[in-house]
């Protein structure tokens, strides 16, 4: 294993190093497609498990729709095809023959799913219809980076249809709240929530709501989005229902998604010079037990006790790995599990057993004196539960402090542009609402991350007009 | 809703009717690709949950590999490309440009995964390497039928590498046992296990082991397979490791899979004239509660009690749906949930509440007198648990009886060919091992489903040579 690049001086290289050293991803032979190795995939499984339960609690049901979509379907919604056509992977041949109509690999499934909705929705009794799909999608991206922007990625995409626009907007908002709750309380990443500007909206949406995180290098990362599609797709696919007054109506639709990008957010939000730090609530391994011994006799005693402890903790639903590998030294194991960000390390040796104690090591604590604590085996479960809970809270608190410190108040672009270019960070400014002023940000590789509900700034960050809304400006991944 | 076709006279149409009426699948705009509607997908989720746990218990880890594979990769293993090239869907254009090398959508992932294995396996310490993937695959099939043979389907594919051939064979066998246990004890489908003949082997395998079920129309269905690949892919992808004696060696590989076809097997194994019958251990809904009332006053009393009961049962980990839909009559609900195969229906009305009882209705029981039982609310949980357990056992027993009755002893093809053609069924015969004799079966649309360990028959079913092994002959899906 090699040392990670300096997190403060070369964040991009540090990120690349982590991906390899923590065995998260590997390059595949296809450009921009990465293999999710078992450790990364188990993080995704945990994300899925929690998010899936929350999604089902909204009355949404899972289903599965085809990977391949007729090319003509994409063209039915004008903005949608404009947004996605540069990114499509196209199947032209199959079963040894040229296809009559090319098929595209889904970049997202609005067209397929709303086509199916048109077969299923006949009456107001069929509404709301709430469907979710866990699937892979393909977008042919020019520049890729594991988790953040990849040619193929995994996600969930929710699609719903409602009787009224009001209901659709409320539902899309409730899903954004669901995402915010999940990202803050499980991934321990504080977010800024708001609407996207017209130019940053999803292709085909009336409203795009977003939650944005701020990574340790001060760049923003769009984490999850929830769209009010209103009538765009229900018109394109002729979804109609008989309303309570026996009139034909079009339903109002929403779509929303969360992707494997969340794993990238975890890395960039919580990692440190020693590697990942996994929030306990999402960690594939919450406690790693490293047995320490020299003689064969001690080995037997220590391993026996260590397995006992592992079982005790597992009975409390704590995810434990007892690393009894004979080929590695304890030091090498410490190093390995630190890189993988296991929140708690439990060390146990013959002397500890004599003293009826173990050592707990807190992955997050930087202060050497506080990092290690001796804990009696008798109340070990409680101590471990408390430590996991503390790490979860502390991780969020640290990230929250960083976020707040990094949201800079500013007025005019000229005043903050140097800071923005040199140090990144987020800037809370006013905006007149014009796309001309918005476009100025592109010249500095920044963008409007979201519109806020507040109106603290009087004037637009660029022109002399008065501000209609506060916005968050930042460079973004 | 329409009546299902006669299960005895038109099994194929009955199957099609069930797919629609039980809201399992719907036709998509892409030929051979079907939408898994929520009810079917929830069956798949239950299959995944149980199978995934069992697979992880073998020390196998989940990962995720790219959907798209360079066309040249398929060509590296001669038999593999021969087997799969007629079925490939090919991406020739992406991101608006023609690709330098076409990419195929994975029909299975041996080539991609063993290429990655060659990057990860360096020493005997890296072995065994056991990886599983839950994914979608595409095979361009000429004739498709939902669940049984579809252009895109969902599956898990396991891939392992071992130090010795012996270990690989034993592991592949243990996975076949795992599948057999799952299919018999959860899906309640009894199976015949054995090896495939050379002509029926997976393209690139040394040994293919299979479990075969026999559907209600007497046709066989291959349910799950486990392959010993030995050196085919490790040679093609140059996987090499340093063994304990510091020599370079090639690992022995296995691959194995279970697909959404299992849902088709459930339907065709257990359905009856009234619809599906879901084995309780895999049923998305184990108990449906149908409240029965006439007045508004009764409605409140009945719904309150029904929710209490639902909570009680849910606390015992029983999956319950309280169908409180006001738009439908109880009779329409009975019909709907019977078609969907919910194993237990619980009816409750004002009189039942006065008598502190409910009615339990057994979906499987055909005898009208035995179908319904009155049960005291006081020991309801226990009664429901027992009934679910009984249905699970009885369903397997019935299917097992049918299987045994349908395995006919026979000697010469001429003697059983008429029965085979008219009534399907399985025939246990001897075989000399020659592909010429095997080919005779194709003339009658039958095939060798598997080779057995026994040698009860003296002579080959076709030629005059002596038999080397017993085989099962049947027509198959």
What does this structure look like?
2 copies of one chain form a homodimer. Helices cover 36% and strands 27% of the residues of chain A. In chain A, the strands form 6 sheets. Chain A has a 7-stranded mixed sheet, with helices on both faces. In chain A, strands 16-15-17-18-19 form a 5-stranded mixed sheet, sandwiched between helices. A 4-stranded mixed sheet of chain A has the order 20-21-23-22. In chain A, helix 2 crosses helix 6. The radius of gyration of chain A is 25 Å and the shape is globular. The first copy, chain A, is of the alpha+beta class. In chain A, 49% of the residues are buried. In chain A, strand 20, helix 14 (413-423) and strand 21 (426-431) form a beta-alpha-beta unit. Strand 5 (89-94) of chain A pairs antiparallel with strand 5 (89-94) of chain B.
How is this fold's topology laid out?
Two copies of one chain form a homodimer.
Chain A: H1 11-21, E1 25-27, E2 34-36, H2 38-57, E3 61-62, E4 68-70, H3 71-74, H4 78-84, E5 89-94, E6 97-105, H5 110-120, E7 129-138, E8 152-162, H6 165-185, E9 192-195, E10 207-214, E11 220-230, H7 232-236, E12 241-242, E13 248-249, E14 252-259, H8 261-270, E15 287-291, H9 296-315, E16 320-322, H10 330-339, E17 344-348, H11 350-354, E18 357-362, H12 368-371, E19 372-376, H13 380-406, E20 407-409, H14 413-423, E21 426-431, H15 435-442, E22 446-451, E23 469-475
Parallel strand pairs in A: 3-7, 15-16, 15-17, 20-21
Antiparallel strand pairs in A: 1-2, 4-6, 5-6, 7-8, 8-14, 9-10, 10-11, 11-14, 12-13, 17-18, 18-19, 21-23, 22-23
Helix pairs in contact in A: 2-6
């Amino acid at each position: 294993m090699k040392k990670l690049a300096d997190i403060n001086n070369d964040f991009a290289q540090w990120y690349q190093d982590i991906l390899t050293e923590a065995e998260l991803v590997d390059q595949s032979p296809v450009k921009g497609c990465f293999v999710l190795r078992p450790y990364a995939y188990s993080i995704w499984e945990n994300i899925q498990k929690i998010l899936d339960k929350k999604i089902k609690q909204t009355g949404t049901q899972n289903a599965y729709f085809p990977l391949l979509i007729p090319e003509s379907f994409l063209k039915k919604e004008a903005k949608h095809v404009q947004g996605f056509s540069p990114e499509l992977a196209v199947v032209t041949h199959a079963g040894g023959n040229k296809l009559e109509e090319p098929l595209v690999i889904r970049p997202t499934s609005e067209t397929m799913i709303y086509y199916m909705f048109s077969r299923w929705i006949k009456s107001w009794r069929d509404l709301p219809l709430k469907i979710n799909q866990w699937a892979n999608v393909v977008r042919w991206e020019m520049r890729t980076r594991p988790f953040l922007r990849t040619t193929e990625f995994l996600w969930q995409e929710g699609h719903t249809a409602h009787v009224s626009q009001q209901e659709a907007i409320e539902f899309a908002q409730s899903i954004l709240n669901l995402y915010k709750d999940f990202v803050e309380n499980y991934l321990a990443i504080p977010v800024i929530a708001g609407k996207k500007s017209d130019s940053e909206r999803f292709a085909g949406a009336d409203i795009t709501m977003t939650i944005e995180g701020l990574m340790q290098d001060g760049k923003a990362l769009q984490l999850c989005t929830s769209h009010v599609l209103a009538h765009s797709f229900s018109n394109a696919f002729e979804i109609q229902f008989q309303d309570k007054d026996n009139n034909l109506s079009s339903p109002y639709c929403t779509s929303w998604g969360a992707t494997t990008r969340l794993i990238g957010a975890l890395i960039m939000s919580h990692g440190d010079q020693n590697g990942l730090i996994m929030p306990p609530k999402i960690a594939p391994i919450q406690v790693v037990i490293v047995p320490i011994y020299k003689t064969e006799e001690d080995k037997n005693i220590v391993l026996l006790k260590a397995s006992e402890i592992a079982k005790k903790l597992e009975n409390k639903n704590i995810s434990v790995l007892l690393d009894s590998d004979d080929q590695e030294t304890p030091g090498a194991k410490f190093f390995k599990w630190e890189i993988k960000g296991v929140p708690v390390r439990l060390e146990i040796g013959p002397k500890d057993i004599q003293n009826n104690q173990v050592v707990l090591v807190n992955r997050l604590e930087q202060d050497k004196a506080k990092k290690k604590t001796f804990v009696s085996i008798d109340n070990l479960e409680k101590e471990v539960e408390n430590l996991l809970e503390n790490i979860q809270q502390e991780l969020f608190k640290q990230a929250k402090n960083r976020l707040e410190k990094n949201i800079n108040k500013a007025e005019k672009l000229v005043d903050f542009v140097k800071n923005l270019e040199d140090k990144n960070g987020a800037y809370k400014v006013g905006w007149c609402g014009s796309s001309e002023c918005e476009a100025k940000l592109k010249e500095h590789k920044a963008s409007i991350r979201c519109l806020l509900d507040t109106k603290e700034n009087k004037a637009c960050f660029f022109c002399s007009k008065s501000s209609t809304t506060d916005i968050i400006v930042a460079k973004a991944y």
